[in-house]
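Appendix B, example 12.
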Amino acid sequence: MLSNAVNYPNKYSGECVYCHNTVPAGFGFYNGSTSCADLVEVEDGYGRIDVTCKNAEGALINFFASKRYVASREAVKAAGEKRRADIAQAKKDRVVAKKNLKATGLCTRCGGAGRSDNWIATGSVCFKCDGTGKSVK
């Protein structure tokens, strides 16, 4: 049974949302949804915890062990790692670009342009170099 869940005696009749067994009024538990038995937590090995009734616990464990589920979780994990690597590379690229601008004596904010129509609200002039386009030390 869940340590932080409160299972109230069920006053509704219907179907268990976890195993789809019929639950008559007065049996099972109600915790926002009707269940036919105590709720249990099942962990999938990737840190995801799901909740189910005791009657459907085996089915959920089998689903978490299925090749399809494992492959989908591994794909999500690989995509996250690739995204983190892309972000880290973009950060490195920005640092290198700023160093290159400084080495050539150009402003690191405007790239040497000094002015831009995009800055019309702030006077169309780069605030870092005051519109000169040259690096400020």
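The chain has two domains: 8-65, 68-122. The radius of gyration is 29 Å.
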